[in-house]
Amino acid sequence: AKSKSRAVPPTESGGTGTQTSSKGMRRAVSAGSLSSLEKDVKSPVEATVSKNEIVVDALRDQVRDKLRNFVHSIKNLLKNTDIDAETRDMHDRLTFIASMENGFFWDDAYASDQLDEISRNQNFTAVLKKIHGLVCMHPDDAEPKSKEVKRRLTFFVNSLFMDMPEAPSIHDMFSWNVLTPYYSEDVTYSKGDLEKRTDALGVSTLLYLQTLYKADWANFLERMEIKDEDRVWSSKFVDETRRWASIRAQTLSRTVNGMMYCEKALRLLANLERLDEDTTNDLLKEKFGYIVSCQVYGNMKRNQDPKADDIEDLMHRFPHLRIAYIDTKRLNRSGASVFCSVLVKSDGKGSIKEIYRVRLPGNPVIGEGKPENQNHAMIFTRGEFIQTIDMNQEGYFEEALKMRNCLQEFAKREGPLPTTILGLREHIFTGSVSSLANYMALQEISFVTLGQRVLTRPLHIRLHYGHPDVFDKLFFITRGGISKASKGINLSEDIFAGYSNVIRGGTVGFKEYVQVGKGRDVGMSQIYKFEAKLSQGAAEQSLSRDVYRMCHRLDFFRLLSFYYGGIGHYFSNVLTILTVYIVVYLMAVLAVFNLEKIGNRLITPMGMIQMMLGGLGLLQTIPLFATLGVERGWLASAQEIFLVFITGGPLHFMFHIQTKATYMAQTILVGGAKYRPTGRGFVTQHTPFDEQFRFFASSHLYLGVELAAGLVLMAVYTDAGQYFGRTWSLWLASCSFLCSPFWFNPLTFEWRVVLEDYKIWLKWILGVSGGATKSWSMWWNEENAFYKGMPVPSKVLYILKAILYTLLAEGIRTSNLFRSDMSLRQPMFSITHVIGLALILVVLGRLFSANERAIPYPVRRTIGIVLFVGLGACALTLIIEDTNFIRYALAAYYFLGAICLIGLLSGFNKLVKNFYLVHDLVCAHIIFIPLFILAALQLPGMIQTWLLYHNALSTDVVVSDILRYARKSQESGGVVPDNNDDMTEQITELRKMVQRQQQMLVRAGLLSDSDAQSLAGSTLALETSSPAASKDASIRVEPARPSYGRAVSMSGLDVWSNMALGDVQADEMRQAPMAATQGHETAPGAPQGGSNFSFSQPEAMPPRYG
User: What's the pTM?
Assistant: First the structure.
């Protein structure tokens, strides 16, 4: 900016920067031109001002006028000056500043000299430029574009208005340690992990992350000054690339990087308290510590596992990080070993230094691995409080600033008992990956936020449900520790800390002004194993002494609250599924035996009333709708609930009601609870049908087919009417058990995929060896092994089920279904001969199966076809000759089911195994036939992909065809081919295909026109990765409106340069090429890397006229 007053060359005024006229007036150089400072004005203004001179400085007068108005505006904002002493004092100070005669507002010479002085101050110049950029920028540039940034800023600002204790000084605050148990999960993704392709789409993990975090990837390339993406794997950038990908996945690097923000936050707070560097470092060591209990780190070192090197890299990057592990040394050849708990750290010189080594009396891992891992590292914690953080969590810098306040909750005493556990809110950061991940995020909101809020107050029965709770360490280490680790019974180790806390006189608090990020399972199989683990853990809890003792000490109302918020939820699921089962068979038996009447009057069902009552279940979504409405807005909340319904959310939640019921009941009846590792990777690949069948057959698919068969029988035999009104909810349950695994499995309705799945499944079901994953026979043996150890009282329930089958079989046999009178006509083929032939073929088939390995393949195939055709012809002949055999076959199916179930309970597995093979063949083909039909239609596949990945698509993640193209683009290696026309033609055809798919969705009513337009841009998400596009990208500059740049940080202080700023706005991607053409360079000496993120200052300011 230029001032109207202009500096005169120092030829007429003795070398000074002023000019004095004969009338006593002078022109002064003040802060009128920041650009003049950038032109290396080396001679300062040294003129002395005479008292009689009139200083003419237009810029000074403008600055004073604006500051004067600003001061008066602030004074007008101050209210209640007569009541509030602090407000009155501030009002008086502002009045004094504005009226002081020899001050800035009234002394012209003093004001000019002050402006001259600060204009030469580099710090002031930098701050002024940044503030000017903030004030002059366009409002669209000031508002963050990233949803994650908006969410975090909104929560942080809102939390400042919550009921939060006053923060003490750094000297007086409580100390705490963070403890994270780690076994052998991913630490930092290697190059091989990021480039490995395992799914049908050929999508690598890096490509998936680049697409999901497109803006972040563009900013990373700009920050690293990488022009060619192939250079990300060069020796200079490979480590930064691995870190960039790892902190966006569920890895140990993400957890450590997030929780070490606590150290940075404390350092910033100490700087604000004006503490010197040495005092700050001493206080950081005293007030905060982070220990990762890497149980097998010693074995990793001995085996030269790359994960050990990654752990050491974390220690070098974060000097205050400590690693605890169990070291084992053999003493002699007989196998005697000595076990030690060891604590290590980085020595700051590139090596690892051992701090403590504590010899243990034996192997500390004798129970569940995770709690034992935590227990052995407890001796290395030094704080008054300990925060348990799981390996799939992360911290935020802005939340770490509030930990001082959070720890003060333990100093408060809201009742007769002390607060010994403090629960914190969790945010699920994996919710945008897919519909399944979104369901898990909403489920966590319902429990972690709403449920725990109610359990805390007014029910006063919140326990410890896992991380990231903060413990009163002194209370717990004198009362058994924070983790119980007995094998089996303590499968859900977290909850037992809550039981011990209640029994031993502690209370639990829950505060929502601090949040911690948490990753959840994102695939159907992962969620299934997670729910199974929780259900088995709840069953073991109900059998434990801790629950027995606590229930004897709780008053009646808290006892009911405990049941509601704990194991009662799983018992309710068991009772729900049991009720559905009983209702289906009860209605089927009444219909089969023609008992749907009272006397001679038929029962009048109230189907419509049942449908209306079922609709009242929607009222259960009101709490979630209200919570999302307050946090995100009412329209966004309504859209979220609507999307949950249209994407199949009810099917998902009903499916997992059965998951919980199955494993809860099975664990109580038989036992066998065990830890199930779920994995924390991304799920983008299609799961084959045989794997789906192994996962869900026993728990869901069998029950779904059984319920559907019972409802079909009821439809055939019933005379009561209003069939749909009575059975719609039962059909919904059956469909959820049968359809959910395949609806939420990507590419299920692709014809090529279905054919491949069918081939693999046939190979698996006919296999005889190679383990459960290779052979149906081996899988069936493992799946039904629990019947051998089942106690007699538990077998009684299964015997009742066999009696129910027998009763239904007898009803079908004696009914009039397909009844025909054979006494009036002579069959073409003797029924006896046909049955005899079928039995002979079955015996030959058994002999053939026993000796098939000795028979050549052509002969074996021919014999197999002949036997199959012969048995089919016999069955068809029986049905044609005598329709009674249809009824007999149905009755025999249920009767054989009862016989086989009794055979399993009696231990005759080999005798009934072949009947179960036939049953599995029938069940699988009941599922395969609709899959083939839907795959042939093609439209269901497109609808499934859009709905399944709607959350990801809404953030420009392209799932199907674009990713296939991206793989071809990457395989080209970034080399520009000669046939660029062919590449452009392929891109054009691809874009047309995606547009046709979107138009089909619009016509089907599944996509609005606005959504189609917003998604149209996503087809170009990976176009720039092509060689042709990358070649043109360096010279293409998009026109943009006049802008003064986007201000990124609010201060030039060095402490802010180490903050990770999360997602950066998408506009930066637009401005990157333009900045390159304007000579925008990174400031010299700016630190590199994701954890040392910084932005350069603009070189010139826009003109300002005075």
Answer: 0.74
CB-based contacts of 481, cutoff 8 Å, min separation 6: 375, 378
Number of residues in the chain: 1106
Q: Does residue 1042 surpass a pLDDT of 70?
A: no
What distance, in Å, lies between the first and last C-alpha atoms of the chain?
9
Q: Give the closest residue to 887 by CA, choosing from 641, 717, 711, 1093.
A: 717
Give the separation between CA 602 and CA 973, rounded to whole angstroms: 75
- For 942-1000, the pLDDT digits (tens) are 888 777 765 544 443 444 444 444 445 445 444 433 444 445 555 565 566 666 666 66
Nearest Cα neighbor of 517 from 442, 451, 429, 436 is: 429
Confidence class for position 1030, pLDDT limits 50, 70, 90: very low
Q: CA-CA distance, 817 to 819, in Å (whole number)?
A: 5
DSSP, res 511:
E
Distance (Å, whole) CA 745 – CA 54:
82
Type of residue found at 351: S
Q: 3-state DSSP call for residue 54?
A: strand
Round to whole Å and give the CA distance between 537 and 552. Answer: 21
Q: Are 1095 and 1052 in contact (CB under 8 A)?
A: no
User: Which token pair is 86?
Assistant: 């602090």
CA distance 488 to 366: 11
Any idea what DSSP says for residue 341?
E
pLDDT at position 901 is 93
Report the relative pairing of strands 25-27 and 19-20 from DSSP bridges: antiparallel
> Dihedrals φ, ψ of 353, to 5°?
-115, 130
- Highest mean pLDDT pick, 379-388, 594-603, 836-845: 379-388
Show the CA angle centred on residue 393, arms to residues 383 and 547, nearest 5°: 75
How would you classify the pairing of strands 321-330 and 385-388?
unpaired
The Cα 251–Cα 242 span in angstroms is 11
pLDDT in tens, 617-646: 777 788 888 888 888 889 989 988 898 888
Choose among 891, 703, 689: nearest CA to 776: 689
- Of 761, 750, 760, nearest to 701 by C-alpha is 761
**pLDDT score for 616:** 72
Q: How confident is residue 1102, by pLDDT bands cut at 50, 70 and 90?
A: very low
Distance of CA 989 to the CA centre of its chain: 35
Report cis status (omega within 30 of 0) of the bond before 468. Answer: yes
Tell me which DSSP letter residue 683 carries.
Answer: -
DSSP 1020: G
Contact assessment for residue 349 and residue 471, using Cβ atoms and an 8 Å cutoff: no
Burial class (CB in 10 A: 0-12, 13-18, 19+), 364: middle
| Residue given tokens 């992990």 in the structure block | 193
DSSP string for 373-424? HHHHHGGG--SSEEEE--TTEE--HHHHTTHHHHHGGGT---SSS-EEEEEE
Regarding beta strands 385-388 and 352-360, do their DSSP bridges make them parallel or antiparallel, or are they unpaired? unpaired
179 forms beta bridges with 291, 388
- Distances in Å between the Cα of 987 and the Cα atoms of 522, 713, 961, 981, 990 are 31, 54, 11, 10, 5
Q: Which residue has the tokens 């004067």?
A: 68
Report the DSSP beta bridge partners of residue 182: 294
Helix axes 702-717, 568-592, angle to 10 degrees: 30
Residue listed under structure tokens 């190679």: 770
Token pair, residue 140, equals 């669209």
* Alpha-carbon separation of residue 123 from 119, 275, 1087 (angstroms): 10, 21, 19
C-alpha 950/C-alpha 439 separation (Å) is 12
- Measured CA to CA, the distance from residue 477 to residue 386 in angstroms comes to 11
In the predicted model, is pLDDT for residue 425 greater than 60?
yes
**Helices marked H in 882-908:** 884-906
Q: Give the pLDDT confidence score for residue 540 in this predicted structure.
A: 92
Strands 54-56 and 25-27: parallel
